[in-house]
Specification:
It is globular, with a radius of gyration of 16 Å. The chain is 39% helix and 23% strand. Helix 1 crosses helix 7, helix 5 packs across helix 6 and helix 5 packs across helix 8. The chain contains eight helices and seven strands, in the order E-H-E-E-E-E-H-E-H-H-E-H-H-H-H. The chain has a single domain, classed as 3-Layer(aba) Sandwich (Pyruvate-ferredoxin Oxidoreductase, domain 3). Strands 1, 2, 3, 4, 5, 6 and 7 form a seven-stranded mixed beta sheet that branches.
């Protein structure tokens, strides 16, 4: 029996974390896994922290991931990587966008965005796969497809074909955005 695998998708409201979790869930369902995708936790309005749990395996009983259980943390922003790093399981991996999105305390001047976050996480011993998803999204044709670039990146750690992923994207996004999203996915995977 396959051990349940856990993926946390973390970001800021408005970045497309929900679409990423929907696509990942749809892909895993197609592959025959039992999956649970949680509701969003946190402040989902634009700018607030958002967390989605995706759990899959032969039989999944709960949608919740506890600290120390995430096989992957897919992070849309550096500070979110640090905020949820203690959820990572031993041997797990943080896949993160190198982009910085200032939270409200930084915007108002009440706090300063921490420096060298990713290198500090790596020094502590976290396995980090960092990618400039914003640049790749722009290369694909839209800043809004950072989520699909990151999905492309995490796809490297799954044994599913590019065709299966691209078909799932085709089935999930509006027709006028299919080509940009497919390009974004491949750029994320190949970077």
């Amino acid at each position: 029996m396959m051990k349940t695998k856990n993926i946390m998708i973390v970001g800021v409201g408005g970045q497309g974390t929900l679409l990423a979790s929907k696509l990942l869930g749809k892909m895993l369902l197609k592959k025959g896994y039992d999956i649970k995708v949680s509701e969003v936790h946190g402040m989902s309005q634009r700018g607030g922290s958002v967390v989605t749990y995706v759990r899959y395996g032969d039989r999944v009983y709960s949608p919740i991931i506890d600290k120390g259980e995430a096989d992957f943390i897919l992070s849309f922003e550096q500070l979110e990587s640090a905020r949820y790093a203690d959820y990572l399981a031993p041997g797990g991996k943080i896949i993160t966008n190198t982009q910085k999105t200032n939270p409200m305390p930084v915007i108002t001047g009440a706090a300063v965005y921490p420096e060298n976050l990713l290198s500090k996480l790596a020094e502590i011993g976290f396995d980090i796969d960092a990618i400039d998803a914003l640049s790749l999204a722009r290369k694909a044709g839209s800043d809004k497809c950072i989520n699909i670039v990151l999905l492309g990146r995490i796809s490297k750690y799954f044994d599913f074909s590019d065709e299966e992923w691209l078909t799932t994207i085709e089935e999930s996004v509006p027709p006028k955005f299919i080509e940009i999203n497919k390009k974004a996915f491949l750029l994320g995977k190949e970077e």
